Amino acid sequence: MGFFNAFVKLLLRSPLHGLMGSVMLITVTGRKSGRLITTPVQFVRDGADLLVTSDRGRKWWRNLRGGAPVTVRLKGEELSGRGEVTDDSQGVAEGIAAYLRAAPAAARWFKIAVDSEGRPDPADLSRTADSRVVTRIRLDPDVR
């Protein structure tokens, strides 16, 4: 883990967590190792769910194939839920489109052009979907 991630983790666990805006910690259990893996991720709300997108080269999300329990540290609170990753191109494109509806400014970060009505360019969306995955986190109903 690099210095930056260590610093972000420390900040998100501190009273200054509000400075991080739409960044949270997600903790998953390694399928092979059984150890807890905690990483900072950017998120958006999609209704009652949280959406997270990650580069395919990262490894933490692989533990969520088929769905698995997760814990998130969000705005200073530990919340439990279930995470499920989508890694097929069509599903990822749909997930990124939902992400952009919640956070239109992210289109610039993803390098996705949008038209005057905010619809993402299909070619840009497809290109981005080839290099990313999307995780949907359903928080336990009693903690929303």
Q: Which fold name corresponds to the CATH topology?
A: Pnp Oxidase, Chain A
Element-level helix/strand string: HEEEEEEHHHE
C-alpha geometry: globular
**Helix vs. strand class:** alpha+beta
Total number of β-strand segments? 7
Describe, in plain words, how this protein is organized in 3D.
This protein is an alpha+beta fold and 144 residues long. It has a single domain (3-139), classed as Roll (Pnp Oxidase, Chain A). It has 4 helices and 7 strands; from the N terminus they run αββββββαααβ. It has helices spanning 3-12, 89-102, 106-110, 122-129, and strands spanning 23-29, 36-42, 44-46, 49-55, 68-74, 77-86, 132-139. A 7-stranded antiparallel sheet has the order 2-1-5-6-7-4-3. The protein is globular and about 45 Å long.
